[in-house]
Write the structure tokens for this entry.
Amino acid sequence: MKINIQNYETYFLLYIDNELPVVEKREVERFIKEHPALANELNTLKQTVLAADHILFEEKAILYRYQEMESSLPVGFKQSLYREEAKVVEGFFTRSKIKSIASIAAILLLLLGYRSYFTVPINNEKGISKNKNTPIQSLDSKRVTSSTADNIIENNLETKYKTEATAPSESNMFTSNNLPLTEETTFIPEETKLIVVANLEPEIRNSKIKESAIISISENMMPATIKNINPNVTIANNLKEIQEEDYENINTEDEDRGVYIANFEIDGDKLRGVTRRINALFRRNKNEKQK
Amino acid sequence: MTVQDFNNCVDNYADGVYRFIVKNIGHEADAQDIVQTSFEKLWVNREKVEAEKVKSYLFTVAYHQMIDHIRKDKKKSTTDNFEEVKQHTQTTSNAELKQILLRAINELNPTQKCLVLLKDYEGYSYQEIGAIMNLSESQVKVYLHRARLILKGKLIHLEKMSA
């Protein structure tokens, strides 16, 4: 279809919208030349076309992307980087209070260390408890089974009458090893006497054990207090050993000496060095205060 | 699409998208928000958008954002739009004629306005405009021609009034 007087307006609109092919554009231009009265109408339509406007988007920087943003962090990594606001504890643990607490702790440690140094037997392992053949065990040792209880009682009775030379006459008749021991036996006292040595304080051991070496304990404690007692060894022998065994003086020349605090062994030399430093520190602080 | 490609798109198309939006809604800050949202969407879908369709994609997104914005902000009057638009108008020798034309464009309905802006500012074909505005090519042609005739009539009327 060609441009004519009936459809020229559509061609004009397509012309100003630049939607016509080159050939049809030339036809429109030729039509205008042929109909100059319509040129004004084409010009008016051309005026409806907006001219280029130099409006710029000034904030391009917020649109740009950067290379490092392309590589996304693994999930959870950011969370590992997060920090929580630290809780500030104010008031109690000031610097001066921490110093005071540290000083008190050091003094307590010193006292405990010296006490252990002078009160613990010279060789805790070489002492009574170390002797594995010792028939007497500590009170807190493993409990014996009921099956061995009778044997223990029998041995105790046997040893008792062996050691007590001045026992009453009626008890002498039971010194025989063949004496049957039953629950009905009248010779078993109500409170079976056992010898408890290991866990006693040294003073008690030195005094009471040397005198009688017998401590009465209640009957219901009996099975729990004794275990693995060698029946061939008498308590009398044990008493003798205990009496013979005394505390040794601390050998300061011994390289292996140490201080025991609870279950911890502290080298005596190191402890002494620490105490010297602490003393020097206190002395220095005192001198500074005096100045 | 690489980061460099994306940044090139910013350089090439951000001005056009912004101009198209700001001429339509007449509000700079809102237009900037729409442009930013459009490029955000392009970034999110950068792997899906073909390189040769990036521009039309940006205008499409911006156009729909603008429609949503107009729906939400119906309080804005065309007079306000004109005042805003006037700030961006470049001073030329035909300044008066241009002001008349801009006023006439602002009186068009939003679809016609978009059609004119996309055609005149961006030079899109009817087909491309139809793709952006979700219209057929013939619809674009009819609506745009109708808008041109309206503008023509207004220009003639205003010229007569001013004369």
Notes: Residues 266 and 273 of chain A are 12 Å apart (CA to CA). The first helix of chain A runs from residue 8 to 16. Chain A has twelve helices and four strands. The radius of gyration of chain A is 54 Å.
